[in-house]
Amino acid sequence: MRLLLIEDNRRLSAALKASLMDASYAVDVAGDGAAGEELAQATAYDAIILDILLPVKDGLAVCRSLRASGLTTPILMLTARDTVEDRVRGLDSGADDYLVKPFALNELLARLRALLRRESPRKCGILAVGDLRLDPATHLVERAGQAIELTARQFALLEYFMRHPNQLLTREMIESHLWSYDYEGTSNVVDVYVRRLRRQIDEPFATPLLETVRGVGYRLRAPHP
Amino acid sequence: MRLLLIEDNRRLSAALKASLMDASYAVDVAGDGAAGEELAQATAYDAIILDILLPVKDGLAVCRSLRASGLTTPILMLTARDTVEDRVRGLDSGADDYLVKPFALNELLARLRALLRRESPRKCGILAVGDLRLDPATHLVERAGQAIELTARQFALLEYFMRHPNQLLTREMIESHLWSYDYEGTSNVVDVYVRRLRRQIDEPFATPLLETVRGVGYRLRAPHP
DNA sequence: GCGCGCGTGTCATCTGGCTGTCATCTGCGC
DNA sequence: GCGCAGATGACAGCCAGATGACACGCGCGC
How buried is residue B20: exposed, middle or buried, by Cβ count under 10 Å (0-12/13-18/19+)? Predict the structure, then answer.
């Protein structure tokens, strides 16, 4: 999730950026309205946090021009002022939410989650490992931009791997996760399905992602970026 | 714009309903959580205003079950309590915004506009996926310029698909949306209606839009432009 | 009231392809 | 080179979904 933070107070923006990155967002920071607007236009952020009182161009104006240019990214406004008229003006300028300083970090995070959830019920859930992407909401899988057709079982297996990247998964773990009933252990379903998955997600591509750990199990390897 | 107001205080709900209708919204009112949830499932509202303190089933629970069932309608929560924890819980239960009583009517209206604006790029008139178009206002459907006659159920089903393009919809999600009462699950109505819809919107045309995801559900595929 | 047409939901049947098993092959590790 | 873990291909059963037919209920016109 990429966020843009437009805030002129250095101390606040540094602290916020750190907290947001702790919450595993990628954060860009702009120190004034014009710079922020430019960044917002140039990059596809998932949400924008926008202070109202800004040098060069104030937050309300930035918000209006972004909306006028067709940008639909969720915008969360921050401000020190708190009258009903302020809020109304903020929301009517095109912001999606409004938060009054001083605010609790938890509330900012909660409002962010609410905004992001609304914008992309699916994006929140997209899993990515290397150039491989899997979307639980749409049940679509692609690698290097190329769509991949998977059966229900294959999808479940890949999802399990992608939720535990780089982690070593034993046959027992996989079996008990995908085939809830007890197997006697004499089956090689897991091997077979790993094979089928490989044929789809690895064989047509240069670098294989699914590794065998002999004697133990399998692992989905995330290449270092 | 159709709104659902879930609020047990008669005086407040009557006053709000009047004000909202002044602002030219169509408003339904429910007096407790269970009734509200049922209404919300049965009808395609544009937004829901939901009190937290409710008889029978409280607002947070209502919100969670609505979201769990796949409903994405914007929800604005109302409450008398105002601690940061309350807000965080409200937003994390799936609400999109949060307003503390007592509030100014203007602020409620502004927040509503903000919520509806977000949904409206699609709703503002016609829903379109590929060369398929559906107009909720006039109940007209056409594909590639050719008009298509649909029954009420077929229309509702298609509208549901078109409001969630590319998203995988399970039978349960579809059933609970279009057939609000509890099914025993032994029915295949969904399959039958998908079949009927396909005969109308897919079979006469070159590229099918309604895909089956075996073992999971269905998906309306938006072709890449 | 009666017949008709339409929309709706249920059921029985059919089929493609998913699924799990097995036999056989491969190659890693000793 | 040997043994075993894992890879691989083939196969048969079965099930999810597709499909066509039907029964019911409601509204409408006669």
Answer: buried
